[in-house]
């Protein structure tokens, strides 16, 4: 079941959706493990949120895998609540699943409750803006409902006898797991073994050992093969999978403090992109990257020709974004990959100013909101392929790393006295996110 927005970058709005501007479609799969086609299932539980609008890139948000597992067990408790013999076997699995969720449940309750309070505080500081007050109040109510439901989930009895009484009494899933709630982002380990449903059929569950249906999303896309090729006869639509990884996992791969680390997965290679605390970027390609305990184990490439971005000359060198922009733009089919990815995965919202000087709590609200809007991973396609929502959005080709995609027009108008000549092409590479130095470079004699 997929919730798909039809505009780009909805994660950058403070309230989502905004009627008339941002809106979304929900495709409720008849095969959903949580929908109305299963006993006690309900509509309103999408487990994947995809930002895809007919372009070569899409961002994917998956409901937390541990929450999926717990949801499956809760459905089976309802199905079996008049079967004491089955409940006896469900109890240990439920206890383990809830304990895993409780590792992050407390912080989620606290964050949701805090965001609800802060949003109402913003409303009080905007007495003359009725539209903003309405939207922010609705957002506050939604956060409060999440906090209340998760509080009830955390309060489920832990003792066996009390739990059996609770299970036999019955409950509503939506009173424990809010509809539309995804939980925290999935870890690498969760995405490599993501729970999507039951592997064991219902007639065998709890009578023998149970197993879950799982998907490895980290390798799914690069290995996917279409039934027919594109115009270039390429049957593999997806070029690379990318996701942020915790800094403690990547610290053994760098000789300096890090700001962020990004893992790339290609069809026949892996790579790490590291950004140092002072903003320099390192690209390191490997045959494979494995996550073992709290560390990374890498296997070097056997041949430099296997390097998937043709960056072998640039690999292993710490360089500033500007140097990367200049160097990777020279005779490379895939340009600016490290620069664009480090910018996309960075918490840019922390660098923005509040909407008004009177909104002292706005940064905290925005942090709570954006933490929920951060995708689990991002995927890019090869040229000639794009991703859209159920064929409702037209095909496009921007947002990739080809020369056509990364170049843009920078138009400046300043009257006859402006020192930049009409039609002048500035030499070198420039970043649109670095506008002020770009303008200064075009006016070398200006202060």
Question: What is the strand and helix layout of this fold?
Answer:
Layout: E1 2-5, E2 24-27, E3 48-51, E4 57-62, H1 65-80, H2 84-124, H3 130-154, H4 160-169, H5 188-192, E5 194-198, E6 212-215, H6 217-223, E7 238-245, H7 247-250, E8 258-265, E9 270-276, E10 281-286, E11 288-292, E12 295-299, H8 321-328, H9 337-345, H10 362-372, E13 377-381, H11 403-406, H12 435-442
Parallel strand pairs: 1-3
Antiparallel strand pairs: 1-2, 3-4, 4-13, 5-6, 7-8, 7-13, 8-9, 9-10, 11-12
Helix pairs in contact: 1-2, 2-3, 2-4, 2-10
* Shape, principal axes of CA atoms: globular
Distance between the termini: 56 Å
Strand content: 15-25%
- Identify the strand order in the major beta sheet: 2-1-3-4-13-7-8-9-10
| Tally of separate helices | 12
Q: Helix and strand succession?
A: EEEEHHHHHEEHEHEEEEEHHHEHH
Average pLDDT taken over every residue: 83
Query: How many strand units?
Result: 13
> Level of helix content?
25-40%
Give the low-pLDDT segments.
1-23, 351-359
